Amino acid sequence: MGFLRDRYNEYGKGMQVTLATFAQTVKPKKYGGGAATVQYPHEKESPPVRARGVIALREDNCTACMLCARSCPDWCIYIEGHKELAPPRRAGGAPRKVNKLDRFDIDYALCMYCGICVEVCPFDALFWSPEYEYSEPRIADLLHDKTKLGEWMETVPEAPELEAGAEKKKK
Amino acid sequence: MIAVDLPYWAQSLLRVLGGTVAVLLPAGTIVYLFLFKMMSFMQSRLGPMEAGPYGSMQLFAEVGKWLQKEDIQPENADKRIFKIAPLIVLVSTFLLVAVVPFGPDAYFTDFEAGIFYALAVSSVSVLGILIAGWSSANKYSLLGGLRAAGQLIAYELPMVLAVIGVVIQAGTMNLNQIVEQQNAGSMFGWDGLGNPYILTQFVGFLVFMIAVQAELTQAPFDMPIAESELVSGYMTEYSGFRFLIFFIAEFATVGVFSLIASVLFLGGWGIPFSWFGWESNNDVDDWMNIVGPLIMITKMLGLSFLIMWVRFSYPRLREDQLQRFAWKVLIPVSLINIMFTAILKVAF
């Protein structure tokens, strides 16, 4: 019998796997069957929370420090800003100088989704969003400005809970 | 027997129509059911779903796409030979189907040496493949063509030898009589199932199906068109309509070989004759000419399912493993099978 079992392990198992997958795919959905794929335009895929779909911008946090633009390997982030005087924090103080964003564009035709800009941002202004439906018929239309990047902030999921025993960030 | 006198031209027209249907229908069915759908299901996806209900019109979309494409020939190609090659492959399929019996009277020809003819004609496609590889003026095509020639010749032998077992047992090479022998036969005096040769010739059946798999260059024996090594082998330079002809020929041959295998081993178009008290092919009622083809198509689908199932499950063998398997395993096994069959035939 050892001979037969060896032959089965060699030749039978593979065919068993394909047949099992076949049966699983053919089985109706309500009995837990169905394909592993999604019929995309008709039903939407639900990407994992941490999927790298698109980079979103929280404009209020950005100081136009240019760290992201300089660290981008593709040079696909375009930032322009100017300094503005803001009212002082305490009464009688001197007005504060703040950086205001005039332009924050990401050219998604160039972006390679490395995420270095998200990593490098010291002010939590850039986030990964799992949003993926933003293809354009013209390549130039893939250059998105700060309003569009800001709209994607709504799709950014909540930050996941810290793992047990992880150190809380010091304020 | 049907006694209808048709003029010669009407008979010829019927034969041409029947032949076209018998080649194209299995090809289309196999491509849609197995290549599109079953392969997708085995990979946990749905396959084509957009063209028609469940993608059933996908085949017409594909054919339309291929017909629109430009008929490109390489500059250095041997143009006339290059153009003829796919036709030779397709013609061998049409010649093959000519001997397959679909019912007591539903056959194209009734050769005495039917299976001999079928095996001889099936190797004509090797010529087409070889000259396709040679005339393309492309090293990948040439390598693919040579591999195909080596493989098809190597696997022709075990196929012929496996068939010899059936021929010895049936005592005839006529395919219709092989069907009769199986359905009129009995197993140890019990004739409820006839005597399909898959039981007595199981080794022959295995060898035959493996050899068919290699003859059809389906995985795991698809070295001639190994896409990761040879682009597409002898089909590399073909596009548009000529590629379509190769494609149709490939899957039509799957169907025709399944038909032949079902005739040789599964009782062909027949149902056990004892069910209706028939003695031989001459007693069989006329309605079997309608039911027979349906039975044949069912058996064809079953056997093609087997071929395709193996195709989708196994990775490709290496060239030397392929040759070693043919010469060192299949041929000795089928020779031993012939020997035992002959001994048992004489003993009983």
From TrEMBL, chain A:
Molecular functions (GO terms): 4 iron, 4 sulfur cluster binding; metal ion binding; oxidoreductase activity, acting on NAD(P)H; quinone binding
Keywords noted in UniProt: 4Fe-4S, Cell membrane, Iron, Iron-sulfur, Membrane, Metal-binding, NAD, Quinone, Repeat, Translocase, Ubiquinone
Gene Ontology CC terms, in alphabetical order: membrane
TM regions (residue ranges): none
Keyword Protein transport: no
Positions of the 4Fe-4S ferredoxin-type domain: 53-82, 102-131
InterPro entries from the UniProt entry: 4Fe4S_Fe-S-bd, 4Fe4S_Fe_S_CS, NADH_quinone_OxRdtase_chainI
HAMAP family: NDH1_NuoI (MF_01351)
Protein name, UniProt field: Unannotated protein
From TrEMBL, chain B:
Keyword Endoplasmic reticulum: no
GO process terms (BP): aerobic respiration
GO MF annotation, one: NADH dehydrogenase activity
Gene Ontology CC annotations of this record: membrane
Keywords, in A-Z order: Membrane, Transmembrane, Transmembrane helix
Main location: membrane
Subcellular compartments: Membrane
Residue ranges crossing the lipid bilayer per the database entry: 12-35, 84-103, 115-134, 155-175, 195-214, 243-270, 290-313, 325-344
Coiled coil: none
Record bears the keyword Protein biosynthesis: no
Membrane topology of this protein: Multi-pass membrane protein
Protein name: Unannotated protein
